[in-house]
Amino acid sequence: MLIHTDKKAYVVFSLWLRIFHWTMVLSVTALFWTGLYIGDPGFAAITGNPEPTFAIDGWFSMETMRRIHFIAGVILTFSFIFRFAGALWNRGDRLLPKFRQKRYWYGLKETTLHYLMIPQKHEHHWLRNSLARTAYMMVYIMFFFEILTGFAMYSMVNPNGILGTLFAPVITLFGGEYKVHVIHHYIAWGFLFFTIVHVYMAFREDVMEESGEVSAMVSGMKYYAHDPIDIEDLNGKRRRGERIDKPSGTTYRPSDPNDPRERELQEND
């Protein structure tokens, strides 16, 4: 564990957001693995049976795997709804990109070069950089369509039921049940790709910047030697993050809110 004696602690992730994150991790993991089996029963049938009947021989039937998949999907759906409710309640949880601000485009370039090791250190520090905000927006869009197509497929168990009637337009919109299945399938693999990149970047940031990126999703806190340029996103209160211990190191220097260069990045186009 790193000791951040020369840095200031900021509460970046609310309890609400952390609960959503870990609920999402568990539900998406369950959804992905059960989804693989539903799509190809031979994937989980490691017993060597040519026509597998059980996901794990003697334990889970296809019916059980589908039930687990549906329950995990419902949990994900409600956590997704509560995520947006939390963002409405807590401004600090609104991690969407701000396309109208100059600093968004500046930050997108700066962060991309940083991850390419050009240069190795950030010129500015961010609570949530432009690249991360853009990725989160894309993931939320993926969640929406994954949930939509998932319920649409499930509703076809009883096309004349309430769900069948409610989601019939989705089937029609995407050109049939098979195409809905294909979209659902590829979005699921998109989540796997995002997870790999996300975990890599989180550990990379933690090691190179020593900001507590990984532990932040447990404690909610990140550590910076300089005030993040988007500090006002902490519920709009510039001083909210200034807490815990007064920095004792010599490298701590709060950023100057009157710096012309930083003020320019705050302005809208």
TrEMBL record:
<feature type="domain" description="Cytochrome b561 bacterial/Ni-hydrogenase">
    <location>
        <begin position="12"/>
        <end position="220"/>
    </location>
</feature>
<protein>
    <submittedName>
        <fullName>Ni/Fe-hydrogenase, B-type cytochrome subunit</fullName>
    </submittedName>
</protein>
<dbReference type="GO" id="GO:0009055">
    <property type="term" value="F:electron transfer activity"/>
</dbReference>
<keyword id="KW-0813">Transport</keyword>
<dbReference type="InterPro" id="IPR011577">
    <property type="entry name" value="Cyt_b561_bac/Ni-Hgenase"/>
</dbReference>
<feature type="transmembrane region" description="Helical">
    <location>
        <begin position="12"/>
        <end position="33"/>
    </location>
</feature>
<keyword id="KW-0812">Transmembrane</keyword>
<feature type="transmembrane region" description="Helical">
    <location>
        <begin position="183"/>
        <end position="203"/>
    </location>
</feature>
<keyword id="KW-0479">Metal-binding</keyword>
<keyword id="KW-0408">Iron</keyword>
<feature type="region of interest" description="Disordered">
    <location>
        <begin position="235"/>
        <end position="269"/>
    </location>
</feature>
<dbReference type="InterPro" id="IPR000516">
    <property type="entry name" value="Ni-dep_Hydgase_cyt-B"/>
</dbReference>
<comment type="similarity">
    <text>Belongs to the HupC/HyaC/HydC family.</text>
</comment>
<keyword id="KW-1003">Cell membrane</keyword>
<dbReference type="GO" id="GO:0005886">
    <property type="term" value="C:plasma membrane"/>
</dbReference>
<feature type="compositionally biased region" description="Basic and acidic residues">
    <location>
        <begin position="256"/>
        <end position="269"/>
    </location>
</feature>
<keyword id="KW-1133">Transmembrane helix</keyword>
<keyword id="KW-0472">Membrane</keyword>
<feature type="transmembrane region" description="Helical">
    <location>
        <begin position="68"/>
        <end position="90"/>
    </location>
</feature>
<dbReference type="GO" id="GO:0020037">
    <property type="term" value="F:heme binding"/>
</dbReference>
<dbReference type="GO" id="GO:0022904">
    <property type="term" value="P:respiratory electron transport chain"/>
</dbReference>
<dbReference type="InterPro" id="IPR051542">
    <property type="entry name" value="Hydrogenase_cytochrome"/>
</dbReference>
<dbReference type="Pfam" id="PF01292">
    <property type="entry name" value="Ni_hydr_CYTB"/>
</dbReference>
<feature type="transmembrane region" description="Helical">
    <location>
        <begin position="135"/>
        <end position="157"/>
    </location>
</feature>
<keyword id="KW-0249">Electron transport</keyword>
<keyword id="KW-0349">Heme</keyword>
<dbReference type="GO" id="GO:0005506">
    <property type="term" value="F:iron ion binding"/>
</dbReference>
<dbReference type="InterPro" id="IPR016174">
    <property type="entry name" value="Di-haem_cyt_TM"/>
</dbReference>
